[in-house]
Structure formats: C-alpha cells, structure tokens
C-alpha cells in the first residue's frame, strides 16, 4: 500500500482538527462517526504516526498531529481555493466572442442584447464589428454573425430575431416635386425605384400590408446597389424612391431631406438572424451567448 495519503483522508483530518470532535466532523461531512474513525485510523497507519489523542470525552492533536496540520494547511487551502475558482469559472464563464453585425441593428442589439449580456457575463469579452457587406464568419474568425436570412449561407445554424425596425419607402422632396408621388403600390411601376441587391444576386422585394393582405412588390429602377448607405445617398441626391429601414434615415426625415410616402399601408418589421457555423466544439462562452439569445424576448426560434 502506498504511504502517500489519499486526499479524502486529508480532508477528514482537517475537519476533525478544526472541530476537535469526531462526532461534529461526521455531521459536517454528512458521514457516520465510524467512517470518520476508520479514515483517521487508516491515515495514521499510512503515516505511521499518531495524529490525535482521543478519549470518550475529548479529542486533541498530538505533537506530530500539530506539525502535520501546520504543514498541510497551506496545501489544503490552495486545493480548496483552486476548486472554488474552477467552480466559479464554470458558473461565470470567461472567453472572447467575435460578432459581425450590420449597421442597421447596431443600436438595437447593443441595447437589447449586448449590454444585458455583458452585465450577466462580465468576464466574457465581446468584439462586435459593424459591416454591411457579406462576411464569411468562418474565414474571418467570427463566432457569430447577424444578417438577413437571405444573406446567410444555407449550411449555417440561424436563430430568428424580430428587430422592431420597419422597412418603408422614402424619397426626397425635390424628387417628389419633379416627378410626383405614387398614390398606391401599383403606381410604383411609374417611378424609378432604387434597387437593393443581396449577395445572392436577388433584388429585395418591397413588402406592404393592405388590410391584412401581405403584398410583395417587385419594383424597377436604373440603379442597383448592395449597401444601404449607397441607396440612401441616391435618394438624398434625388435619383429615385428607396425602400429602407426607417431607423437608418431618421435623421434625414427629421431634417426634411427625405419624406415617407405611401403612408396608408402598414409595413413589416424586418427580422434578422443570429447565425453560427456548427454545434460541435462550441466554447462555454459561445453556448452561454446562444442560450441568452434563445431566451431573450426578441428570439422566435431556430431554423
């Protein structure tokens, strides 16, 4: 038999030494008094020293027992501290997450997702980078991306979000003065409508609700762009009507440089998707973020 004590024997020894009572140690450790006695006897046999004086009324450390206690205390405390730190690290995970988001939802997601997540998990470092173009999250080292569903590669795992921003048509006052304003959806075919193209090559269909009827309107125009910023600049320069997130042009609307049109219709909120590459080998921090997203009020399910 090895002369090196097992750690549970050290744990029992430290507990008995703390209380100087076999009975109290058994209560604290939730084991029977005979189990405590047997463990101490086995420890003394391994060390070939007597650690405790014990009688029916009292327990005290021997000289060797005091020396052993003095030597073992820093080792034992280090062990306990290490275990507590490991447990704390599991309940309060650390790590770094790199996330790509489009400009349109940066304020929304910071307020509703990232700030509450950071408060809940302060030891997780977030690197949030804004980009309106297509980002290959695998090739560029991102853990997650946030985009339209149409922009997400089909092999990705995606979780839907209701973004609480609406897509609607806008035009400049000068454009409307020169060309007039469409009175209904059908009249859009008479106007130059700036086209927004997805990475797939498709142009975005304009969506309307007319008395609960959901209408997808394919418009036409002589300018096709693939960023919201170019589309907005085109409208500010009086080139046509755009269909864009209201939050992106709020400053231009309030200053009078752009106007809402076709206000008799309702417009859909634009869902975005959090997406990631695989369920395998996901870090603890990433799993915490996924669960946080799923449990948030904005998440409506995985696809």
Automatic annotation (TrEMBL):
Keywords of the record: DNA-binding, Transcription, Transcription regulation
Which residues constitute the signal peptide according to the record?
none
Please, one GO biological process term? DNA-templated transcription
An example Pfam family from this entry, by short name, is: HTH_1
The protein's superkingdom reads: Bacteria
Q: GO terms for molecular function, please? A: DNA-binding transcription factor activity; sequence-specific DNA binding
Q: Among its keywords, does the record have Coiled coil? A: no
Ranges for domain HTH lysR-type come to: 5-62
Q: Which family does it belong to?
A: Belongs to the LysR transcriptional regulatory family.
What PANTHER family does the annotation carry?
A: HTH-TYPE TRANSCRIPTIONAL REGULATOR (PTHR30537), HTH-TYPE TRANSCRIPTIONAL REGULATOR PGRR (PTHR30537:SF1)
Specify the protein name.
Answer: HTH lysR-type domain-containing protein
Question: From which organism does this entry originate?
Answer: Acinetobacter nectaris CIP 110549
Q: What is the lineage of its organism?
A: Bacteria, Pseudomonadati, Pseudomonadota, Gammaproteobacteria, Moraxellales
């Amino acid at each position: 038999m090895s002369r090196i004590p097992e750690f549970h024997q050290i744990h029992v020894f430290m507990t008995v030494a703390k209380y100087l009572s076999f009975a109290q140690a058994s209560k604290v450790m939730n084991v029977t008094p005979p189990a405590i006695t047997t463990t101490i006897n086995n420890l003394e046999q391994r060390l070939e020293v007597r650690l405790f004086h014990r009688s029916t009324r009292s327990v005290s450390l021997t000289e060797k027992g005091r020396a052993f206690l003095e030597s073992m205390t820093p080792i034992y405390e280090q062990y306990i501290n290490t275990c507590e730190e490991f447990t704390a690290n599991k309940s309060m995970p650390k790590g770094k997450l790199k996330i790509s988001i489009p400009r349109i939802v940066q304020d929304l997601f910071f307020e509703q997702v990232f700030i509450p997540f950071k408060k809940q998990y302060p030891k997780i470092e977030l690197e949030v980078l804004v980009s309106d173009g297509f980002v290959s999250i695998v090739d560029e080292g991102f853990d997650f991306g946030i985009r339209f569903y149409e922009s997400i590669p089909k092999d990705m795992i995606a979780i839907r979000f209701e973004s609480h921003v609406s897509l609607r048509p806008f035009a400049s006052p000068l454009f409307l003065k020169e060309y007039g304003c469409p009175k209904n959806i059908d009249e859009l075919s008479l106007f130059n409508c700036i086209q927004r193209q997805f990475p797939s090559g498709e142009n975005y269909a304009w969506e309307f609700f007319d008395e609960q009827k959901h209408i997808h309107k394919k418009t036409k125009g002589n300018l096709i762009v693939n960023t919201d910023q170019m589309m907005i600049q085109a409208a500010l320069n009086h080139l046509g009507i755009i269909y864009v997130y209201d939050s992106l042009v709020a400053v231009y609307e309030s200053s009078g440089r752009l106007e809402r049109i076709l206000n008799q219709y309702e417009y859909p909120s634009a869902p975005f998707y959090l997406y990631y590459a695989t369920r395998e080998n996901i870090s603890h921090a990433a799993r915490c973020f996924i669960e946080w997203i799923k449990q948030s009020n904005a998440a409506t399910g995985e696809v």
